[in-house]
Amino acid sequence: MLTWIVYDITDNKARNRVAKTCKGYGLYRVQKSAFLGDINRNQVDELALRCKEFTDQDKDSVYIFPMCSEDFMKAKIIGKAFDKELVTDRVKALFV
Questions:
Q1: Which range of residues forms the domain containing residue 40?
Q2: Pairwise CA distance, residues 52 & 35, whole Å
Q3: Which residues, in sequence order, are bridge partners of residue 5?
Q4: What's the predicted TM-score (pTM) here?
Q5: Rounded (5°) CA angle 3-74-34
Q6: DSSP class of residue 95?
Q7: What are residue 61's DSSP bridge partners?
Q8: What is the CA radius of gyration of the chain?
Q9: What is the domain-level CATH number for residue 12?
Q10: In which band, very low, low, confident or very high, does the pLDDT at 18 lie, cut at 50, 70 and 90?
């Protein structure tokens, strides 16, 4: 299932760990603090647990949004969609 990960993390080390973890699950960076990719439900749960380990629950936030393909195709993009240097063709093709 397509999954968005969006975060606001104050500590550089924790933020880098979350980004590295997202990449490790095959997610694509679409903005500095946003990742998108196709992962299964078990991976979503694992990713949530790993992000929880790295973050300060009192200061940081991590949002994980599973999304079906039909809803993803309805997304509205205003302005520059994704940074072309950060996103592969696979994700960009979903917006065609």
A1: 2-95
A2: 16
A3: 35, 64
A4: 0.78
A5: 35
A6: G
A7: 8
A8: 13
A9: 3.30.70.240
A10: very high
